[in-house]
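Ticket #4471: structure output looks truncated?

Reporter: J.K.
Steps to reproduce: submitted the chain below (497 residues) through the standard prediction queue, then opened the result file.
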Amino acid sequence: MNKLKLTELGIKDSRDLLNKKEISAAELTNAYIQNIKESTKLNAFIEKTFNIALMQASRADKLIGTNSQKSLCGIPLGIKDLFCCKNVKTQAASAILDNFIPPYESTVTQKLWDEQAIMLGKLNMDEFAMGSSNETSAYGPAINPWKLNDSDDLLTPGGSSGGSSAAVAANLCAAATGTDTGGSIRQPASFTGTVGLKPTYGRCSRWGIIAFASSFDQAGPITKNVIDSAIMLKAMSGFDPKDSTSAKIEVPDYEQQLDKDINGLRIGLAKEYSLEKSDSEAKRKWEHAVLLLKNMGAEIVEISLPHTEFALPTYYVLAPAEASSNLARYDGVRYGHRATLDTNDSILELYEKTRSEGFGTEVKRRILIGTYVLSSGYYDAYYKRAQKVRSLIKNDFDEVFKNVDLILTPTTPTSAFPLGSKGTQDPVEMYMNDIFTVPTNLAGLPAISLPVGLDELGLPLGVQLIGDNWQEPLLLNTAFNLENALAFESKPKNWWA
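Returned output as attached by the reporter:
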């Protein structure tokens, strides 16, 4: 099998070939390494760990076919730069963590290595996961492998997990880790024609993942198809005593629960999640997905989530507040960047200069907003009130899930946009990209985005399924059925090699 065909496979198909000994883990890993070397234009990988990968591949080849073989044996993965990996540079794409090399491994990545996965390297992202376009990265933006019809414009791969989505879409890894604070797995998946899964809050440990907003952040996979998401989620999930928010709930075998009949399933369509242009290709693709679900026997139910309109302002009060607290630890004293001081500078001036030099514009903006809403004069007016609205949004979902099994929405208002076209003057325009994804983070619910088709510009669009707490098996099974019915097979042209 040639290199291109080999790297087009996902986790399951690669695993099947490995188990049959039709390919070796070393052969598969080398194919991905070659792709990465030829794809520097995409700027997806910011730290390459090829030596580690080849050692892991050699070990995997010895384990395949033995009783010691695990679920991801020999599968090459990319890791978002937010996950600390022992003795591997991890910066959260920020200059303030310049050359930080963790002496420990995040729980999620340790679980992947315990399942004998292979680490190809660290993936680009928005700085500290703050962004929707991967343009806030200290490494420069990752580039979407998709392009507009008849245009050379470079497009965003989404954010913050833009490097992860670009790498999976461009066949630079079999799958990748991402994190989702307000849509940072699902929005990039929608922009790149990949599958992005945000699990229930607490399903995956946050220990060793550099924090943005602790009550929102959740790790999840970006994959080439739904079955791969099921395989990877099982490997990533599980209770972790090192994480106080980790749930002590049994992890099902998600892969074994796929391909069940969805006849009689009740799927809600919320009137608040509507696309603006009624005659657009995005609207037609959305309606096609609804029709396919009906044809499979699902019952479509009109629902209302009345507090949805307050989701974005609530998120952009609470998340920056948590960020201002979490990022206070970066002061130039213990690790990362330290500013050069004048002879008479005080410790306070060290903090100020280090943070001013190390943090990018968007991170500074959110720290300032967060500090403001937590200040004594504004805590009740902003932070406390936002927490109350968050409860109302969660209650909306709780009431709806008494009558429906899942909710179907668009993932994003539009397809991928050109780099530099949004947010430079008005950051609120950028924040609007998360309008359909943020509510599930406020409520802690699981949600998955899968490609539904191409728009008028020839770019992928996503559709989102939202489930109740711990309903990942139902969510994945329904997504699997819908994915098969949609039969989305479009791929980006290989212009970057």
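Triage note (M.O.): checked the attachment and the full token line is present. Residues 379-400 form the longest helix (22 residues).
Status: closed, working as intended.
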